[in-house]
Amino acid sequence: MTSPTGEVTITISSATTRGVGPTVDPIYHSATRGVPCWARNHRGDVRELPMSRWIGGPDSADHDRLADEHVLWHCSPRPTLDLGCGPGRFTASLQQRGSAALGVDTSRAAVELTRARGGTAIHADLFGQLPAAGCWDQILLTDGNIGIGGDPVRTLGRASELLSPGGIVIVEIDPPTSAIGHELLRWETEHYVGPWFSWSRVNATVLDDIARAAGFCVASVSDIQARVIAVLQCLAR
């Protein structure tokens, strides 16, 4: 809740601290209708949610298509797990190219949007039981999803459990000038306010330490017009 003085008062249950859950479904439905959506953190800072980029398609900006292609270029035809797939632009694109891919999201609306565009997706928590654990050649944590749950080391550690030997994780992190660290977020529109959930913002200045703490090394970092894509190689297990 926001008080008349502008201060944000937060009440959090354990169900809202792990990631974006099904109660953000109205946000996704609003976004497909072109309704503005934004995120507010526990300090009251507001930033626009790039829903048009997340949805993707022919209306995407040229630099976003270029960055997305860079992600896809790193994916072999071998199986890819898209964690926090959202509306499924990567999952669907990989399958359209003949590659095996599975999207995972805690939002039922996101899963429905992924399936509607031809991608395979399941409604699940990435920290819960997932199919083919230890057999995925690539894992995607795009659109800042390394921050899911508010603990990037834990999130990458989970990715390591899901990867096959020699697998990679492709992450998208914030630009170098962005604030970093843990925050509590909620998604909002003019007519809807979602629940608070834990998140972390990561940029290249801290990525190496986070990766090593989770058993990875940073193989490459590419800055594509303020979208920063990094490839993490799992260290010997």
Give me the number of helical elements. Answer: 7
What general form does the structure show? globular
**CATH-defined architecture of the domain at 59-180 and 200-234:** 3-Layer(aba) Sandwich
| Unreliable parts | 1-18
CATH topology of the domain at 59-180 and 200-234: Rossmann fold
Series of secondary-structure elements, N-terminal to C-terminal: HEEHHEHEHEEHEEEHEE
Number of distinct beta strands:
11
Q: Mean of residue pLDDT?
A: 89
Could you give me the name of the CATH homologous superfamily of the domain at 59-180 and 200-234? Answer: Vaccinia Virus protein VP39
Helix proportion of residues, in percent? 25-40%
Reported for the largest beta sheet, the result is: 7 strands, mixed
Assembly type: single chain
Strand order of the largest sheet: 5-4-3-6-7-11-10
Spatial gap, N to C terminus: 45 Å
Which class do the helix and strand fractions yield? alpha/beta
